[in-house]
Amino acid sequence: MNSLTTALCERLGIQLPIFGFSHSIEVTVALAEAGGFPVFGAARETPDKISEDIALIKQRLGGRPFGVDLMYPKLAGDESSREEAKRKLPAEHLAFVAKLKDKYAIPAAVKPNFFADQIRNQAFFDAQTEAVLESGVDAVVTAVGLPRQVVAAAKARGKTTFAMVGSARHVKAARDAGIDILVAQGYDAGGHTGPVGTYTLVPQVVEASGGLPVLAAGGVGHGRQVAAAFALGAQGVWLGTAWLATREYGTPPVLLRKILAARSEDTVITRAHSGKPCRVVKSSWSDEWDAAGAPKPLPMPYQHVLTGELLAAIEEHQVEPLVYEAAGQSVAWFNELTTVREIVARLVSETEAALDEMNGNLKAHNP
Ligand SMILES: Cc1cc2nc3c(=O)[nH]c(=O)nc-3n(C[C@H](O)[C@H](O)[C@H](O)COP(=O)(O)O)c2cc1C
């Protein structure tokens, strides 16, 4: 028990109301050990790898709870292979990508890479879901879409269900589906995001929640915001960008330099990543797609079919100007390489100080 333990913490069996999304197993383990609730991002994983990774996390966590997050976006097409989808790519887009490859002298990738090897389609989402449902994970998080059958199947297996929501309009569907916990993720967030800012979104979701617990996500990097999240009616916070600045994540050096140097205004919402609006750290990738004369990014899943090999090569060869990752406005608070435990400890002490300061200000005003 500590000063920030909430009813939700007690229900989930954690010490701190700090939830974290990460693609990293090491971050997932470290956040659980620091007393928070980790959610492993599996949307970029094959079903087999998902089963393996969850088994490993479960073994390392020794009974501490954790979740897994999958994305369920609406797709503009449902081809069964990248080859089939490639036949639909417009010549203008292919020429644009070929030009980028020449301009930045990018060698081909040789290592396997999700974006170069996979295509998002319904069969893939179903297989990912099956792997998660059959695993020993405690919680399932749905993002960028809310399939009722997935929520029902997760609940039938005794798993806690979370839904990412970007608008108060989405709360009813989440409640009707039987979601247990709402994550109100605002415009400030890294990754796929909607147009409503976190500060505006959270109280709207709380009002519409019918008493379901709400977590505040998007832009959180300081304990003042954790204190504010409680004031907005949330029972915890959910962070994603923070972990890119940790030793546990193992961020490649070029990306790490960009993350540590970035201010809030150095992130941008672009469709050039996946075809859907996604907040990323600015780079020549977003600039090139934004430049006059550039083609409009293709809808999901075609944008990754078009760019997957090039993105894999950019990552593998760390092509400096083009390297990027999803990152939120919270990036401003992560300026040095640190650890998950240090971030959690800083957030806790800043939150306690902010709550004291708030109480002091209120008393001073109304002695
Ligand atoms: C690198 C990265 C990848 C992300 N991918 C996903 C994802 O696959 N599913 C999801 O629900 N959220 C994803 N998000 C969003 C996070 O869950 C979280 O809501 C967001 O990071 C919160 O805002 P912040 O980035 O300011 O901390 C991602 C965020 C980052 C930074």
Q: What is the gist of this entry?
A:
This protein has 15 helices and eleven strands.
How would you describe this structure to a colleague?
The protein is globular, with a radius of gyration of 20 Å. It is of the alpha/beta class. The protein is built from 15 helices and eleven strands. The chain has a domain at 7-76 and 120-246 and 336-361: TIM Barrel (Alpha-Beta Barrel). Strand 4, helix 8 (148-156) and strand 5 (160-165) form a beta-alpha-beta unit. Helix 2 (25-33) packs parallel to helix 3 (47-61), helix 3 (47-61) runs parallel beside helix 7 (122-133) and helix 11 packs across helix 15 (340-365). The longest helix has 26 residues, at 340-365. The mean pLDDT is 96. The strands form two sheets. Strands 1-2-3-4-5-6-8-9 form an eight-stranded parallel β-barrel, surrounded by five helices. The structure holds flavin mononucleotide. Flavin mononucleotide binds at residues 21, 41, 43, 69, 71, 143, 164, 185, 188-191, 217-220, 238-242, 325-330.
